[in-house]
Amino acid sequence: MFATVNADCIGCGACEAICPQVFRMNSYEIAEAYLNPVPLDADDCTKVAAKSCPVAAIILE
Known about the structure:
Blueprint: E1 3-5, H1 14-18, E2 23-25, E3 31-33, H2 43-52, E4 58-60
Antiparallel strand pairs: 1-4, 2-3
């Protein structure tokens, strides 16, 4: 699975709090998926982070 964060991100940090193995805040305080493909052991938390995003900015493929 691949994770991306689109331009709708508001920088709330929920994804990083839920799944720091895959998501982090960049220097602009916008989330980014820094580990792709997503490791199998982070699959579940990546899905939870995507569902928890208040603006649905996380895309999973």
